[in-house]
């Protein structure tokens, strides 16, 4: 207790010292104040009446006060509109750079200011000496004063409060609120001073907001009529009940109103209107209207404030119009327009793809001639294609493929098919913005070309045809990448993992990429044999992958899988060797997989053939490594020797009975198993249904041959992500079914737990079905705050040639991205207790898993830092009849491990470093009446998790 009190006292003293130093104002002049931040105070409280500028309440038609139904809005966004910022802090509290500046001697500020104003190459002692002389400090000539200079140069001058800037910030805030719909908003600023420090307080009175009274639509016939005619054709050809045909007015609403974010009764928010306009631009550019609203005068929201400024009629007008200079300042856009021609849909008349390695300029970016081959239409006549023609005065060999003109100047390095297969659009196609975006995505996905130019423009003299010029240059054929990571796990205290990736592009002239990764790791584990060494565990691996920008199938699938889906294939091979706790194993794997992305938010991946062979090198070491399981085995031995005394003599005295023979006997002797179950049912269950199952997973060589399908739907990848986003992923794997067709030709094999199965080349194959479902929901709020949740369920069902799931396909809980209050593999299955009193900690695995997590994320004062509060819950269970801790629907909730805590994340250019500090709330391994853990929580002893990126 005394030690705990000392630690707490030291922490309090340290915090007090930080507080004292944070209050330093050494270099603040007498009549100035150090600016330490801004306060924002809303004078309109939720539930109170709206007041006008005279303090009188607004009344409704019945003469009753109109009450404010909004909470204080956008509080986290307001600092962005304040011009003056306080000195930067680290760790949310410490103005370190201000401290450094304070430490430097103010006597030399003028000298250092001029010294650091010049180029770093000119900063020499001679310059410093000349400045000493200039400022009458000859006694310092020849002295570097590098420590003082370091403090000055790396410090930050104190930010003094400026009332003029505060007044300008108040005006910014007032304009901001007016744009958000509070037309009568008033923002005033004032100072709150405390000795040499000061804050600016902004008092905000919003008043009654403007709302949308009604929404009408005025759509140009040039757009509306073709759309409605297409709908009528669809009704005539596809729908049986013609009576359900929508009127033109209902059709307009179904297109423009049903999914609109502009709704009656909502606040008149200019930012919302801008988002709606962007969405409409995207819609119509994908309907063929090239350049739609590029000049921002074709989609206009009119607001009529003549009758009321609080319930305002809104009209969406889409027309090919020109704005008049005489605009009204009382609406979002003027309703005074000039008539102009109707909209027209555009078609590609030329699609030109140029590959020219000579034009790649890595040091200069996009070439000066960004239009490159802009040619006259007559030069693309059919009889010229495939011949040498003159383009811009140069003789160029051209050809056409899939209605795309190709100028391939790679010297035969790339097949023309590569260029045409990336193109989603061709000559004669209607313009569609998504086609160009999908083409760019295909080019990036192929990972062979730099895009030097991607230009689409209207053909001269035409109002409905386009020319598209795409200019590419090949990337370097060979490249390499060096990576380095650190890690910790339940087995390893810490480790490092260096790796080297070598990539060779365009292996067979079809943009095929070969990637080979050499990796390894060095780690430290607790070991009785070699605990003196810093690194006593290691791993080496090599992974090779050959990717193809097409589907590797023996038949044409273009009609089934269009180019815009970005089809690709990969063949991969790998080898991995682990030497750690003593079991040691080798993994060999191979796979053929296919990938398509039908939409921006959906991904399908099929692994047609997955092969994995796992070989354990020292299975006999299991009970020496996991001594708790060895202890359970020895108890069973004692019962067996009582049951069969001669076996005890052979084992202990004559040494003629070995462990491996005795383990087989324990599995075969049904009479002894009945005897043990009567004598000690708990020991029987623990050994046969838990220890032996675990030993089998950890020591049995196994061959997995499977088919796998993976589907992902991720709204975060959409063009216009919604405020609340959904992520859904499901994966199903079937293993061993193909091999089972040959069972009659295969030999029998006795596994390490004495089961008879079929084998191939001396190794049993696994047969199972495995299903995973992962659902995530992201609720985004203002100020970069969000509430995020995840639910995961997974089940593996062994059957046929398997009695249990292999190690690599089993489920576990705990760790940085799971139930964070426990280490990885830290508890389960069910209520099982994993003891670590002797040997290595046991590892919890089983066939069924449930996991859920909720996490609230919010920005912290220091730039780039984010905080989090989270709660996790989950466990693993068995699913078979003889499973230890089998899943039971009526009681599983009592066996959930529940934990929670807080975390800090550091965002470095979208690279997230994460620390989570978690505590157990509900521990299923304890007695049922003592599982809630709150009274045992030790605030200064959390389970610390370090990881890269968010947990989900």
TrEMBL record:
Cellular component GO terms held in the UniProt record: outer membrane
Residue ranges of the TM segments: none
Coarse class of the protein's main subcellular location: membrane
Keywords: Membrane, Transmembrane, Transmembrane beta strand
PROSITE patterns for this protein: PROKAR_LIPOPROTEIN
Location relative to the cell: Membrane
InterPro entries attached to this UniProt entry: Bac_surfAg_D15, D15-like
Domain Bacterial surface antigen (D15): 585-935
Stretches of the chain forming a coiled coil according to its record: none
Name of protein: Bacterial surface antigen (D15) domain-containing protein
């Amino acid at each position: 207790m005394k030690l705990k009190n000392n630690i707490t006292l030291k922490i309090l003293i340290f915090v007090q010292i930080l507080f004292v130093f944070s209050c330093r104002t050494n270099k603040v002049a007498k009549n100035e104040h150090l600016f330490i931040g801004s306060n924002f105070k809303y004078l309109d409280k939720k539930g109170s009446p709206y007041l006008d500028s005279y303090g009188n309440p607004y009344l409704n038609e019945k003469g009753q006060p109109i009450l404010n139904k909004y909470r204080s809005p956008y509080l986290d966004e307001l600092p962005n509109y304040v011009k003056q910022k306080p000195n930067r802090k680290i760790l949310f509290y410490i103005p370190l750079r201000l401290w450094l500046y304070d430490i430097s001697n103010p006597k030399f500020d003028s000298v250092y200011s001029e010294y650091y104003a010049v180029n770093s190459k000119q900063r020499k002692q001679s310059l410093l000496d000349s400045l000493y002389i200039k400022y009458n400090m000859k006694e310092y000539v020849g002295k570097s004063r590098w420590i003082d200079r370091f403090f000055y140069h790396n410090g930050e001058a104190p930010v003094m409060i400026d009332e003029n800037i505060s007044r300008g910030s108040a005006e910014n805030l007032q304009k901001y609120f007016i744009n958000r719909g509070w037309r009568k908003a008033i923002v005033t600023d004032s100072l709150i001073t405390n000795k040499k420090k000061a804050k600016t307080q902004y008092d905000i009175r919003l008043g009654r907001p403007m709302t949308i009274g009604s929404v009408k639509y005025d759509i140009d016939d040039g757009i509306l009529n073709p759309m409605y005619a297409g709908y009528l054709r669809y009704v005539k050809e596809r729908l049986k009940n013609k009576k359900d045909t929508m009127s033109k007015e209902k059709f307009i609403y179904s297109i423009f109103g049903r999914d609109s974010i502009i709704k009656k009764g909502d606040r008149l928010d200019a930012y919302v209107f801008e988002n709606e306009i962007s969405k409409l631009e995207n819609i119509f550019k994908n309907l063929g209207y090239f350049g739609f609203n590029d000049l921002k005068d074709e989609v206009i929201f009119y607001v009529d404030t003549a009758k009321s400024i609080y319930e305002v009629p809104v009209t969406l007008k889409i027309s090919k119009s020109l704005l008049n200079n005489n605009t009204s300042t009382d609406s979002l856009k003027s309703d005074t327009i000039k008539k102009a021609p109707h909209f027209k849909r555009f078609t590609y008349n030329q699609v030109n793809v140029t590959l020219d390695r000579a034009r790649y300029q890595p040091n200069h970016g996009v070439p000066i001639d960004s239009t490159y081959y802009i040619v006259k239409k007559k030069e693309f006549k059919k009889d010229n294609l495939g011949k040498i023609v003159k383009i811009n005065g140069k003789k160029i060999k051209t050809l056409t493929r899939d209605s795309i003109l190709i100028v391939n100047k790679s010297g035969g390095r790339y097949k023309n098919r590569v260029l045409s297969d990336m193109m989603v659009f061709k000559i004669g196609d209607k313009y569609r913005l998504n086609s160009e975006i999908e083409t760019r995505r295909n080019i990036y996905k192929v990972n062979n070309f730099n895009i030097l130019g991607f230009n689409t423009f209207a053909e001269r003299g035409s109002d409905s045809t386009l020319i598209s010029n795409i200019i590419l240059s090949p990337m370097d054929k060979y490249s390499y990448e060096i990576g380095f990571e650190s890690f910790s796990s339940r087995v390893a205290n810490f480790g490092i993992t260096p790796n080297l990736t070598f990539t060779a592009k365009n292996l067979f002239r079809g943009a095929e990429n070969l990637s080979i990764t050499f990796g390894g790791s060095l780690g430290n584990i607790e070991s009785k044999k070699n605990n003196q060494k810093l690194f006593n565990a290691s791993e080496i691996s090599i992974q090779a992958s050959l990717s193809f920008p097409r589907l590797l199938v023996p038949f044409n699938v273009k009609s089934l899988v269009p180019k815009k889906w970005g089809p690709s294939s990969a063949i991969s091979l790998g080898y991995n060797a682990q030497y750690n706790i003593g079991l040691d194993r080798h993994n060999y794997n191979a796979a053929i997989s296919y990938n398509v992305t039908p939409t921006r938010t959906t991904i399908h991946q099929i692994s047609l053939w997955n092969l994995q062979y796992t070989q354990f090198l020292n299975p006999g070491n299991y009970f020496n490594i996991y001594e708790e399981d060895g202890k359970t085995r020895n108890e069973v031995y004692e019962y067996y020797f009582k049951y069969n005394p001669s076996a005890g003599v052979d084992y202990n005295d004559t040494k003629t009975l070995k462990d491996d023979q005795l383990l087989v006997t324990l599995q075969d002797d049904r009479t002894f198993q009945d005897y043990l179950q009567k004598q000690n049912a708990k020991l029987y269950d623990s050994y046969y249904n838990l220890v032996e199952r675990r030993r089998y997973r950890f020591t049995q060589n196994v061959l997995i041959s499977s088919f796998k399908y993976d589907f992902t739907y991720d709204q975060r990848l959409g063009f216009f992500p919604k405020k609340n986003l959904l992520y859904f992923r499901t994966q199903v794997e079937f293993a061993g079914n193909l091999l089972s067709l040959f069972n009659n030709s295969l030999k029998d094999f006795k596994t390490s737990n004495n089961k008879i199965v079929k084998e191939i080349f001396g190794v049993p194959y696994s047969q199972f079905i495995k299903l995973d479902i992962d659902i995530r929901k992201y609720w985004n709020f203002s100020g970069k705050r969000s509430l995020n949740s995840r639910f995961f369920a997974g089940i593996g069902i062994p059957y046929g040639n398997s009695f249990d799931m292999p190690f690599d396909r089993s489920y576990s809980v705990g760790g940085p991205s799971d139930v964070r209050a426990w280490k990885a593999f830290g508890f389960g299955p069910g209520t099982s207790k994993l003891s670590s009193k002797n040997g290595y900690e046991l590892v919890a695995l089983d066939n069924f898993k449930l996991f859920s997590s909720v996490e609230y994320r919010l920005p912290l004062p220091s730039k780039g830092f984010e905080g989090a509060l989270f709660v996790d819950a989950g466990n693993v269970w068995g699913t078979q009849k003889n499973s230890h801790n089998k899943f039971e629907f009526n009681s599983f909730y009592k066996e959930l491990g529940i934990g929670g805590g807080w975390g800090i994340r550091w965002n470095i250019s979208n690279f997230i470093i994460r620390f989570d500090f978690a505590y157990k709330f509900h521990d299923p391994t304890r007695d049922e009446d003592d599982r809630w853990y709150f009274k045992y929580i030790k605030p200064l002893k959390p389970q610390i998790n370090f990881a890269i990126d968010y947990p989900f």
